[in-house]
Amino acid sequence: MGTLFSSQQCSNLLETKPKALPYELCMPSEDTIISYIGNAIQKLRSITKRLAVYISTDYDTPNLWLNLNANFPNIDFVTPKATYSNSTKLVEHNQRDPIIDLHLMANSNYFIGNCISSFTAFVSRMRKANSSLEKTTVFFGDHLLKPNHLLDEL
Predict the structure, then answer these.
(1) How many domains does the chain fold into?
(2) Which of 20, 96, 145, 148 is most exposed, with minimal Cβ within 10 Å?
(3) 139 in a structural domain
(4) Which DSSP category does 29 fall into?
């Protein structure tokens, strides 16, 4: 399939139109998630010493939080459901509020989204509209959209 949900927002990343979207673009692996978060943390370390990473996801597995905390032991991870620090759930949140998710993602210093996601498309457009703010927006797996990586995976 050449497009899915809001994948058109990836089109500005494309040099050639793919026959099919790479699976990793649709459902990034934990390795991809960790790699992209690591790149963001590395870039943001020059700005601030204390970081918190907000993750708005439906992919909520204890294994992901353990892997993230193992790779980034001094970072607090905040999700709609809980806050984690050093592999420990510090606070459990009662309700998920999509409006708060949108606000946090639209105004963050660095945003990594899933370009297939309609939710991400809304955030990306909000960030582009406020482009005077020096904010970085990238998509998980965007490196796969380069011509030498395009394969028929789906």
Answers:
(1) 1
(2) 148
(3) yes
(4) -
The Cα–Cα gap between 95 and 14 comes to 37
Range of 98's domain?
7-145
- DSSP, collapsed to helix, strand or coil, labels residue 96 as coil
Q: Residues near 82 by Cβ (< 8 Å), separated by ≥ 6?
A: 89, 90, 91, 92, 93
Residues of the chain with pLDDT > 70, as a percent, come to 70
Query: In this structure, what CATH number is given to the domain that contains residue 21?
Result: 3.40.50.11350
Q: pLDDT value at position 151?
A: 47
Query: What is the band of 74 on the pLDDT scale with cuts at 50, 70, 90?
Result: confident
Q: What is the distance in angstroms between the CA of the first residue and the CA of the last residue of the chain?
A: 7
Report angle CA 58, 138, 4 to the nearest 5 degrees. Answer: 60
